[in-house]
Amino acid sequence: MSCPYCQFPGTGSSRFCPKCGHRLTIPLPSEEEINLSQSRYHNALGNSYFLQGLWGLASIFYQKAINISPELWQSHYNLGCIYYRQGNLSSAEHHFRRVLELQSNYYPARYNLGTIYLKQKHYIKALENLVVVKKQVPYFWPNRLNLAATYYCLGLYQAALEEYLAVHRHNLCQEEALKGIKLTCQKLGLKPSTLISSR
């Protein structure tokens, strides 16, 4: 350890610098610790503005946090959510992909990424992500609806129907699930009323 005041090298475990005599009992934080602290502070400010609906200000602070600590996945996720809500899907995709590089099991980012791919009609990419989310959190019904829609768009009507029925069985998202069941039954030549009443 060197003296933070005069930079004298090799003060060792001494409490005082042998050159300038300054007390060394309080170790100074490393640059990495300072950066992480600052980036978390900016992320917290961003969260505060986000909760107030001030997305422009929130995004400024999330970006500051990322500039200081590019590995702070929370800021990438939060910024991705803002871009998604603003309709900037390519920027949102970039940040959600970055989250998954840093935290591969963070299912909200994977769900959002799958949803973006579904909106962009990249159905195979959507399927890859939404299936992983289903394995992680099987009862996350918005994901199951998106998975059903993806199966439907890929022409996998039986798989789509199973997902729509699973959502309907749990009395969630009834309107969307019923609409999906009816459309899928038309493709399969089935009567929706028999499937719904038998559940």
UniProtKB/TrEMBL annotation:
This protein's record includes keyword Repeat: yes
TPR repeats: 73-106
InterPro entries for the chain: TPR-like_helical_dom_sf, TPR_rpt, Ycf3
Keyword Lipoprotein attributed: no
Pfam families membership: TPR_1
UniProt entry keywords in alphabetical sequence: Repeat, TPR repeat
Gene3D superfamilies recorded: Tetratricopeptide repeat domain
PANTHER family: TETRATRICOPEPTIDE REPEAT PROTEIN 6, UDP-N-ACETYLGLUCOSAMINE--PEPTIDE N-ACETYLGLUCOSAMINYLTRANSFERASE SPINDLY-RELATED
Name assigned to this protein: Uncharacterized protein
Species this chain originates from: Calderihabitans maritimus
